[in-house]
Design a protein that fits this description.
This protein is an alpha+beta fold. 58% of the residues lie in helices and 14% in strands.
Length: 340
């Protein structure tokens, strides 16, 4: 069965990355979860929210992930090292944030939803993919009493906060990656505009909107928790939820700044493209303006009728001199007007 459990002082931490029929039956039988809540998780018809029932509080939380050919890229650092208890003690107070593959250029950010069921004596976390921060917390709780005391010893509400706080930290590399992409696009435009600049701008704008929407929908959750709307998750946790709210609001502010930057870069890119097109049209127009009178003269003297100087031996030289003088005068005129 794909359900892992660790317990300490009457508080259980249950974690699953994939639900099947066996897991569903176990959850419904042992925790009496609502069929609607479980069906929403299975059918992936969820949005970030917080709901309270008589026996538990449900928090649906969205985290960013990188999609590759429709599949979620598993986040790195999901396991604890095998260097014994010393390594665990060093990593206990620090939850590693996910590190996506270095080749994230033009990759699209998607949302991975996590259901956190918080009861009086349990926290059940359900996700559709591997989340490195949750894996880390669960594994160190399995391995050491000290970790179980730190995460589970203060009750289910505190454990839920520690999990959500670690998930919030997972936004940091994604927000930094977006800022780095904007900086790279800006530097490339200063040097030379590449054919892929427009695609980079488009994907970055799309990722900012997705992440902005993701964070914007979780802020009301933290605001309710900070204000004590759900008493079972407050008590001495109000200051913790206020801290989570401050972090999410700071992420939102950074994304709004990044959105303004990428919009400015997009406008600059469009201006450069228009200027380049105008220069091309200008050059072609100048060439057309110079060649037009020369073509007219050549067409006139190509007709089968008698024209002045048509039979004169020096007619060809005179006509060529006239055409050359006319062309040079037009070039000087365009130059004087500053058209090129």
């Amino acid at each position: 069965m794909n359900l892992k459990t660790v317990s300490h002082k009457g508080v259980s931490f249950v974690y699953s990355t994939r639900l099947g029929q066996l897991e569903l039956h176990y959850l419904r039988s042992n925790f009496e979860f609502s069929h609607l809540h479980l069906d929403d998780h299975i059918n992936r018809t969820e949005l970030p929210k917080i709901e309270s029932t008589k026996k538990y509080v449900l928090i649906v939380f969205g985290v960013p992930s990188i999609s590759n050919n429709g599949e979620v890229v598993k986040q790195a650092h999901g396991e604890v090292g095998k260097n014994g208890v010393d390594t665990l003690m060093k990593t206990l107070s620090h939850i590693p944030i996910p590190k996506f593959t270095s080749n994230t250029k033009r990759e699209r950010i998607s949302t991975l939803y996590i259901d956190i069921f918080i009861g009086k004596d349990y926290v059940v976390v359900l996700s559709d993919g591997v989340i490195s921060q949750i894996n880390h917390i669960f594994e160190i709780c399995q391995r050491t009493i000290r970790a179980r005391e730190e995460f589970l010893g203060q009750g289910s509400g505190f454990l839920a906060y520690k999990i959500i706080d670690a998930l919030l930290d997972g936004y940091i590399p994604t927000v930094n990656a977006i800022s780095g992409m904007i900086d790279r696009i800006d530097r490339e435009m200063e040097k030379k505009q590449s054919p892929g600049t427009l695609e980079d701008i488009s994907v970055t704008r799309r990722n900012i909107v997705v992440l902005h929407t993701m964070i914007k929908t979780i802020i009301p959750i933290f605001r309710k928790l900070r204000d004590g709307v759900y008493q079972e998750l407050n008590g001495n946790l109000s200051s913790y939820w206020a801290n989570a709210l401050n972090h999410s609001e700071s992420f939102l502010e950074r994304l709004e700044d990044d959105r303004e930057l990428i919009e400015g870069i997009s406008e600059s890119n469009e201006f450069i493209l228009r200027s380049r097109t105008n220069q091309i049209v200008m050059v072609l127009t100048i060439f057309s303006g110079i060649i037009l009178p020369l073509t007219l003269i050549a067409s006139i003297y190509g007709m089968n009728i008698d024209l002045p100087l048509q039979h004169d031996p020096i007619a060809f030289s005179v006509i060529m001199a006239i055409m050359l003088a006319l062309g040079l005068s037009m070039v000087l005129l365009f130059k004087k007007k500053g058209w090129f």
